[in-house]
Here is the input.
Amino acid sequence: MEVISDMSVSELTLQELFPKTLTDTSCVYIDKESEVWVATEMCAQYIESNVDSIVVCDPNNKPIGIVGGYDLCDYLRKNPTRDSQYNHKVEDIMFTELPQIEKTTTLEDLIERWRNSRRAFAILPNEAGGYSPISARKMLEIGSKCKTDITVSSMPKKEIVTFQKDDSLGKVLDLMFENKTRKLILKDSNQFISDRLILTGISNKLKFEKEVDNFSDLPITEFHFGQVRKIKEDLKFNQLCSLMDKMDHPFVIYNDIPVTPWDVCLTLMSKELKNLDGIEYQKITCPHCGKDISL
Here is the structure.
């Protein structure tokens, strides 16, 4: 048996990366017959947590899809009326390619799957007979254990996408989908809007502002903005992830470099990341096929 020194973090399995916490959270479920407004209210509570998306079940409680911020905001921009929240069911808008994985799935395979589906969420069977979620938020646990010289300034770069105070909700949603981002920065400010904040606002208007019919035309200023955490130091990757993991809604900016849990996922794909605190990489040779087996 020998210790592996050249194995990157992305090549490890989820079981190896989360030996104790992989299935410590249970999925949140919704019936496929539920109306869209129910999913809107539920997702407003869970987006950006370890749960992040809702699992859709059939009458036999079998998972058949997921619904999250992407699906609800896409539906909202195409169907912006109040009635559309009540006239359609979750099964009409859910993502039907159920992202079910196994403990033996590698981090690299998982993130590639997320990249292709544009949904950083998956489920895996747990010991209780149900399913546990794994989302981009959970990747902060891995990042906080990485021993590396990578800093915020050396992470994959992306442009800051901004919106204006006089923009409508419809314009903001279009900007999100055109730029493939869940968060937009208010120009010349430290404030931002996100799918979670939009769905929270829509849920409140459904309950308390019965006179509002078309959401698309609403001024974006009628929605609550979040406050971006600006950092002044070029933190190491593990320090950054530790900081973000303590935040309810992780989002930081360093020198005009925005960082979300998804950016952490992309950095974890780096072949430079090879060492994690508290994890030993070992391998033995299978006596039957002669291949190396990681332990």
Q: What stands out?
A: The two ends are 10 Å apart (CA to CA).
